[in-house]
Amino acid sequence: MRRGMILIPTFRRPKGLAKALERLDTLDTNVEISILVAENDPAGGQGREVVRLAAPHHRFPIGVLEVADRGVSHVRNALFAAALATPDVEFVALLDDDEWPEPQWLKELLAMQRQTGAEIVGGTMLPAFEGEPPAWAREFELYRQVQPDGPSKMVWGTCNVMLTRSVLERTGPVWFDPALGLTGGEDMEFFARAAARDARFAWAAAAVMYEDVPDRRVRPDWVFRRSFRIGSTNALVQRRWRYGLLGRPLILAKAFGHLALAAGTLLRGPVRRARQMEALSLSARALGEMSGLLGLRYREYGRASASAGQRIPSEASPVAAGTIAPKATS
């Protein structure tokens, strides 16, 4: 029987974590599974308390790993290291503490991995809106993660993914760049680096996960900030792992192209609200790419660290160069 570990980073989302553990208890699987939760607020301990209450009655064994260093990169690095230190773990599967799976989730990820021989398999992410969303948000790509079934060129996020032990061993022990721990994009950088090291990817469309989308995220200001951060991270990742020395002019050209496309959408006359939001998102990504070329990135999770007693970083402040060395370029 295959043995795997489900990994969940958590920071001050006790209700979301409790819901995730509740839904994991209903998984349709005969694989030997354990769950490891990484508490990134040991002083507060809300995640630790959720596990204490859930573990005695849960179908799968649940452990807690305390990670004092703030930032999701530190947390995921600690989770991967703990998984590799556990004998006979053949794979890990990840979700966040504001997500929950359908019962067939893990079975579909594993089936696609067996079918394709891929080392990294992603799955569908769908939004679970807190309230009734505006019409433009229902199909907005920023709230969902969808690809066709089968082999894939890339998986972009750790919010719904399975990785084999072999790819962890080949790409670690520093899997996620600590310099990106508070900006976001650490998962995109990791997967781009894995691809550069010949990792094989696939997508399991039937491996469905849902993500909570609170009302505050269904607003133009949030769409702009998230899109800006994605653009900034894209610039970093593409320069580091794709374009090499040609990165700056190519990324800048693409950013100007995105701005032109967004402007063209808005200048054609009255457009639907959905098209307006698409143009806003595209413009923000382009500005983020330009910002990234200057070494400026929006620290998306800086506010959370401030609430934990740390300084609030500037939302567009220089971020130190990553600790992961890029591939050599000619």
Verbal overview:
- With 330 residues, the chain is of the alpha/beta class.
- Helices cover 41% and strands 19% of the residues.
- The strands form two sheets. Strands 1, 2, 3, 4, 5, 6, 7, 8 and 9 form a nine-stranded mixed beta sheet that branches.
- The protein starts with a strand and ends in a 12-residue tail after the last strand.
- Residues 303-330 have low confidence and may be disordered.
According to DSSP, the number of beta strands is 11
The low-pLDDT segments are 303-330
Q: What would the principal axes of the Cα set say about the shape?
A: globular
User: Rg from C-alpha positions?
Assistant: 20 Å
Helices, by number, come to 10
Beta-strand portion reads 15-25%
Q: Which secondary-structure class do the elements indicate?
A: alpha/beta
Distance between the termini: 46 Å
Series of H and E elements:
EHEHEHEEHEEEHHEHHHEHE
Main β-sheet description: 9 strands, mixed
Average pLDDT number: 86
| Helix percentage range | 40-55%
